[in-house]
Amino acid sequence: MGHRLSKIVTRTGDQGSTGLATGDRIPKFDARMQAIGETDELNSVIGVLLTHALPEAVRSTLSRAQHTLFNLGGELSMPGTVFVKEDDILRLEEAVEALNESLPPLKEFVLPGGNPSAAACHVARAVTRRVERRLWELNEREPLNEFTPRYANRLSDYLFVAARTLARQNGGQEVTWNKQA
């Protein structure tokens, strides 16, 4: 691969616009740029989560999710391009089911926490939900690949189940809501 970013300081964004991969320039506050930025943030949060001790199945799924999120960002920066596929969603669904098999049924709402890796996973889940909302907002204005917002929805499901799994690591437990607290 050649040099994609040979010059970092370009000053082209100093007036409040930014360039898409198509060469088009749009305001930095545009809904598309918000979605790109929040997807980048999510990828970074998952990167932080990956610094924790994780079961290999979780690590593998999250690593793959980072690549899919980069593809999702590519779709957003090149309107009309499709990188996120139904197979990406199906893989997440399989991963959710595999992790969920060993978990007890939910009887109460789960609070973020339990241990550092579970808490980091809950942060990633919350950021994913924000990305999903932003994608649906953008989709209202400019239709996206149908699998793009669905991928974010499924990723938040995965992160919830992964957080429940991680909370139980090393003899830990998840924290559930107590309405009397």
Keywords for this entry:
5 helices; mainly alpha; elongated; Hypothetical Protein Ta1238, Chain: A; two-stranded antiparallel ribbon; 181 residues
Helix content: 55-70%
Give the strand content: 5-15%
Structural class: mainly alpha
Q: Give the biggest beta sheet.
A: 2 strands, antiparallel
CATH architectural designation: Up-down Bundle
- Low-confidence spans: none
Number of helices: 5
Describe this structure in words.
The chain is elongated, with a radius of gyration of 18 Å. The strands form two sheets. A two-stranded antiparallel sheet has the order 1-2. Helix 4 packs antiparallel against helix 5. The termini are far apart. By secondary structure, it is mainly α. The longest helix has 26 residues, at 116-141. It has helices spanning 31-49, 56-77, 86-100, 116-141, 147-167, and strands spanning 17-19, 25-27, 110-111, 175-176. It has a single domain, classed as Cobalamin adenosyltransferase-like (Hypothetical Protein Ta1238, Chain: A). It has five helices and four strands. Helices cover 57% and strands 6% of the residues.
In short:
By secondary structure, the protein is mainly alpha-helical.
List strands and helices in order, with pairings.
Blueprint: E1 17-19, E2 25-27, H1 31-49, H2 56-77, H3 86-100, E3 110-111, H4 116-141, H5 147-167, E4 175-176
Helix pairs in contact: 1-2, 1-4, 3-5, 4-5
